[in-house]
Specification:
Blueprint lengths: L1 E3 L3 H16 L7 E4 L4 H10 L2 E4 L5 H8 L4 E3 L1 E2 L2 E3 L3 H11 L5 E2 L5 H13 L8 E4 H6 L7 E2 L4 E3 L3
Parallel strand pairs: 1-2, 1-5, 2-3, 7-9
Antiparallel strand pairs: 4-8, 6-10, 7-8
Helix pairs in contact: 1-2
Length: about 160
């Protein structure tokens, strides 16, 4: 699920990393949640076969989760670009600790520190980079604090 408060360029950067995971059968379906009403985002979602919906920023994760298929969801913001080997890290986590949410942490000192502070203050809140059960995303809260994965994600702001 991709929350898209950003530009079409940022969304395209995120899709460029996700499409190989779809081709490999790891990801089955994408949902783009447009929080600003950008026409280009709907066009990109349609071109990639993703579902598209509009929602306010406050209800974006829950609305996208309700529209998503599958039992586990990867929550990303447009512009999030998971690093190499992210699929293997998520697969390993789902095999070894399926009941615990996982986090693909942000790379970069400033962004990483802000993300760590947010997790400490709001450890059960939904945020980009999480791999969560669909039910938790619909409820809007995690059942447990996330486990940081050994690979992360970068930002392709645009």
């Amino acid at each position: 699920m991709i929350r898209a408060p950003g530009s079409a360029h940022a969304l395209a950067a995120t899709f460029s990393v996700l499409i190989p995971a779809v081709a490999d059968g790891f990801l089955g379906h994408a949902v783009v949640v447009d929080t600003r009403g950008e026409n280009d985002l709907e066009r990109i979602a349609d071109a990639t076969g993703a579902s598209y919906l509009r929602a306010g920023a406050a209800e974006a994760w829950q609305g996208g989760a309700a529209a998503a298929r599958g039992d586990r969801l990867l929550l990303l913001d447009s512009g999030d670009v998971p690093q190499l080997h992210w699929v293997e890290a998520v697969e390993r986590h789902l095999l070894t600790a399926p009941g615990i949410p996982a986090l693909l942490p942000l790379r970069g000192l400033g962004r990483s520190l802000r993300e760590r502070a947010a997790i400490i203050c709001e450890s059960r809140a939904l945020r980009p980079g999480l791999v969560v059960p669909k039910g938790a995303a619909i409820l809007g809260r995690l059942a447990a604090s996330p486990q940081r994965l050994p690979v992360g994600r970068e930002r392709a702001d645009g």
